[in-house]
Amino acid sequence: MPITITGNTGRQIIILKTEVYEYVRKIYHSHNCIDGYRRMRTYLEHSRYSYSATIIHKYMKTELWLRSIICPKKPGASVGKSHKVFENRLKQDFTAEKPTRSGVWISPTCS
Q: Are 44 and 23 in contact (CB under 8 A)?
């Protein structure tokens, strides 16, 4: 059932809430509950619906109770403790005779 809302400009905006709700639910569950309100807005724009992101966020959060699955960001590299360096008791030579080709080191066991 369409609900007609008159805005400040005097034009009438027809909102088909039940159709939008069903469409959002269908997209949400077909995409394994991953999509949030921003991506949902783009899916609605590709169809015939045109709503702002805040309206879609309100529909999903308060009226439909749909939550997106948020994948947390991986932590960036941080400076930690350096590894323990042992003294050279075997008196081995750790210097390279010639530089490696193209920056790739090939293990002698793999060749």
A: yes
Phi-psi region of 32 (alpha: psi -120 to 50; beta: other; left: phi over 0): left
CA distances 57 to 23, 26, 27, 77, Å, are 14, 16, 15, 33
> pLDDT band for position 11 (50/70/90)?
very low
List the one residue out of 11, 27, 13 whose CA is nearest residue 59: 27
Is this model's pTM higher than 0.90 or not? no
Distance CA(52)–CA(83), nearest Å, equals 52
CB 7 within 8 A of CB 13: yes
The token pair at 4 is 């007609």
Whether 44 contacts 56, CB under 8 Å: yes
Euclidean distance between CA atoms 29 and 25, whole angstroms? 6
Residue type at 54 in one-letter notation: T
